[in-house]
Amino acid sequence: SVSRGLGDVYKRQVPTQVLYADTDPLTGHTAMERFRQQTGAHLTILKGGEHWFHTETQLAALQSWESCHL
User: Fold this and answer.
1) CB 51 within 8 A of CB 21
2) In terms of pTM, does the model score above 0.90?
């Protein structure tokens, strides 16, 4: 099959779950909301999270989210 680029990814109806940190300095709120709208992804926002989850609290939240959504 011929690849038509990343734009085709948004056309697929694949259930998508995203855990997004509200203080992520690399992925802005606008970009994440646009992605959610384009893909129909379910967005969970972790308050006080960062781009890379690394504290005990963040890792516990990640593990809990994974248990529920994956």
Assistant:
1) yes
2) no
Residue with tokens 């855990």: 19
Three-class secondary structure of residue 46 per DSSP: strand
Q: What tokens appear for 66 in the block?
A: 């994974």
The number of residues making up the chain comes to 70
Task: Encode pLDDT of 39-65 as tens digits.
Answer: 899 999 999 999 999 999 999 999 999
As a whole number of Å, the end-to-end CA separation of the chain is 29
H/E stretch holding 20: strand 17-21
Cα distance between residue 66 and residue 18, in whole Å: 10
Report how far residue 25's alpha carbon sits from residue 50's, in angstroms, rounded to the nearest whole number. 7
